[in-house]
TrEMBL record:
GO terms for molecular function: hormone binding; pyrroline-2-carboxylate reductase activity; thiomorpholine-carboxylate dehydrogenase activity. One of its GO terms (cellular component) is cytoplasm. Homodimer. Binds the thyroid hormone triiodothyronine (T3); T3 binding inhibits enzymatic activity. Belongs to the ornithine cyclodeaminase/mu-crystallin family. Its EC number is 1.5.1.1, 1.5.1.25. The lineage of its organism: Eukaryota, Metazoa, Spiralia, Gnathifera, Rotifera. It is an enzyme of class 1 (oxidoreductase). This is Ketimine reductase mu-crystallin. It comes from the Eukaryota. It comes from Rotaria socialis. It catalyses: Delta(2)-thiazoline-2-carboxylate + NADPH + 2 H(+) = L-thiazolidine-2-carboxylate + NADP(+); (S)-cystathionine ketimine + NADPH + 2 H(+) = (3R,5S)-2,3,5,6,7-pentahydro-1,4-thiazepine-3,5-dicarboxylate + NADP(+); (R)-lanthionine ketimine + NADPH + 2 H(+) = (3R,5R)-1,4-thiomorpholine-3,5-dicarboxylate + NADP(+); (3R)-1,4-thiomorpholine-3-carboxylate + NAD(+) = 3,4-dehydrothiomorpholine-3-carboxylate + NADH + 2 H(+). It holds the Pfam family OCD_Mu_crystall.
Amino acid sequence: MYSDEFTVKENLSLSPLLEVLADVFHRYSKHDPSLEQPLRSILPINDQQNALLNLPCIDTQRGYMCVKTITSFPGILPAIDGVVSLFNSNNGRLLLIADAKEITARRTAAVSFLATKLLASNKLKNENAVLTILGCGVQGRVHLDVFTELFKWNKIYLWSRNMTHAINLQSDYSSKLNNIELLENLNDNRILQSDVICTCTASKEALLSLHQVKKGVHINAVGSFRATMRELADDLMLSSDTTVIVDSKESAMKEAGEIIQSKAEIVAELGELIENNEFCDGISKDKITIFKSVGMAIEDLAAAIVLYEYLQECREK
Ligand SMILES: NC(=O)C1=CN([C@@H]2O[C@H](COP(=O)(O)OP(=O)(O)OC[C@H]3O[C@@H](n4cnc5c(N)ncnc54)[C@H](OP(=O)(O)O)[C@@H]3O)[C@@H](O)[C@H]2O)C=CC1
Ligand SMILES: O=C(O)C1=NCCCC1
């Protein structure tokens, strides 16, 4: 079975995806032996900027194995291209090949939302909550999509290095959302109003420092996945007001520029927060929470399972 970009978009529902993501993140952080995920390989190509990535994992509890093979060519659109392959872990049969662009986009934004729910649930109870998205490429767009499908924000601010990209995104949403405003630069004081910020850029220099955000803000830092990339400044990473959570400690220490360069302490993995209300409730409202993701194979596995099982159900009807 092959699912193209359009099929993935139409059939990968967020609600079951969030459930399966929570389960695999929880089991990953518990070192559940039925879930195996080695470190992914990132093979740089010539100039060190482009890369071939391979992300495998096996989930014998659910009976699936998954491998995503993608290229990352920042600057050539789409920057990410490739496929996700899902197999049966009991008999080795290939079950599904799906477009990796759409799976990567949606599962990454869904993970950011899951982190926001766990670390900033108080913000999602506030009807005046403000969302800011930095970077209006594929990830910025899908973060806007997912974050507005799952929550009603009072105000949304968009910024992109190339302002036209932010204008285009605002305009594409104009029939659905009339509360989007543009930020012309990152010194704009309106960033200080943000309750949740998603940084979705391929930047190599910090875009956000401590003085640009308010106490109690939650940040999903999505963009960096190399030691040389970063979106957040050292003072933000190292402040005594900041709690840093990552998707995987092993991956973050190898791939997350902010963590490697600042040497910030990682307080926990996202999976450790699931079913741990004590930890989440214990984070003071004044704490800045940062969820730094680099991306993991189990996220693609979760998306491929949800998609495959839904498509099977449709076939059987
Ligand atoms: N954590 C995870 O799981 C995942 C992380 N990623 C990473 O997220 C980032 C965004 O991916 P994606 O949206 O697919 O890529 P796109 O190529 O679609 O978009 C790139 C974005 O980065 C911005 N950008 C690039 N360079 C700079 C810079 N020096 N300063 C500020 N902004 C910059 C661009 O701004 P503009 O267009 O306005 O110039 C654009 O908004 C990438 O680094 C990607 O590798 C991707 C998938 C999963
Ligand atoms: O997890 C992924 O998939 C990716 N992570 C970093 C950038 C490329 C895609």
